[in-house]
Amino acid sequence: MRASQIISAVLATTTTGVLAATSGTFDVLTINVAGLPAIFNSNDVPGDKATNARTIGAYFSEYGYDIINMQEDFNYHAYIYETDAHPFRTPTSGGAAIGSGLNTVANFDWINFSRTKWNTCSNDSGADCLTPKGFTFMRVNVDDGVWVDVYNLHTDAGTAAGDLTARNSNLQQVADYIDTWSKGNAVLVFGDTNSRYTRTSDQIRVFSTQNGMTDPWVQLVRGGVVPTTETICANPSTTNYCETVDKVFYRGSPVVNLAATEFSYESSKFLQADGNILSDHNPIRVNFNWSLSNKFRQSNYWGGPHGTWFTDLPTLSGKSGSLKTSKITFRGGSRLDSVGLTLADGTALRTEELAARPLL
Question: Which residues form the Inositol polyphosphate-related phosphatase domain (predicted)?
């Protein structure tokens, strides 16, 4: 069955019986590491690319960001991992023309990691179709009972007609995936969107309008007002006010409240010894506070990464009064095909045909 969780109204404890934390903080970083082979793209970044990659990895360790999403992590991936010390790291999917260039390192473990290729790409003003770009998904365990679905993405680049069509399709593909696989969950989406609010042909607002997510840059730096006048960032940027194509979006859930507290371009922290840049993109850091809801707690997930995701949390969180359960039903033979829950008020919740595989 698809990994599912048990939601309860009981105070959570750790396996040792110690009361689990109910609030905390973490930070995230998104950075395009300019890892294409120099023969194809120098990215206007001086210096040796292998040396620059080692320096980037060393900075990852020095600053200790909790979750780092990388894009264009192609042919110099091993050099970044050589100097990075994060305990949890995704394996590379390959160099340029083979892999997606998307990788994540973190201080937290995760489950259900997957890579998805874009349904649409365009070579109108570049070579986006020559490598399987797309997005990744992982369910990150920030703390006991605190799970956040994390997405990393790198959309189609360029502003030709085909590029715009492909990029908007890319963004829509992620938004639709969130609706299906992250229903009821806290979510973070951060990466290289190749999009700007001031470029009206870009549908970057889809994460807000469709998925109910917030952009911390708009929230914290722009006072909640989406910009209409373009402000291009220098590199390294000396202000947070300008807009880049690298972005972060977030939302909480009925179990986990998320609040962005600080947004920063980390440009000055990612420089070579001589002061030159390490990437043609300004890295973005966002700090978050999290807290558990007073009403719901969540267990760890059970099952595997296949089948159909299901959760009754949106329904349960919309109900007032007692959520006392009167009956739980299971149906299946060699596999679990259905789970049913009936509340004391008569509300019946049931999921059919969970997956064609044994229950783990």
Answer: 60-221
The H or E element that residue 178 is part of is: helix 161-181
Q: Which amino acid is at 234?
A: A
**Identity at 155, one-letter amino acid code:** T
Rg of the chain (C-alpha set): 21
Q: Are 186 and 293 spatial neighbours (Cβ–Cβ below 8 Å)? A: no
**Secondary structure (3-state) at 222:** coil
SS3 (DSSP) at 281: coil
Q: Say how far apart CA 217 and CA 247 lie, in whole Å.
A: 8
Query: Dihedral (C-alpha) 310, 185, 214, 142: value to the nearest 10 degrees?
Result: -150
Peptide bond preceding 236 in cis form (omega within 30 of 0): yes
**pTM score of the predicted model:** 0.90
> In angstroms, rounded to a whole number, what is the distance separating the alpha carbons of residues 150 and 187?
6
Q: Please give the Cα distance from 57 to 73 (Å, whole number).
A: 11
pLDDT tens track for 135-194 = 999 999 999 989 999 999 999 999 999 999 999 999 999 999 999 999 999 999 999 999
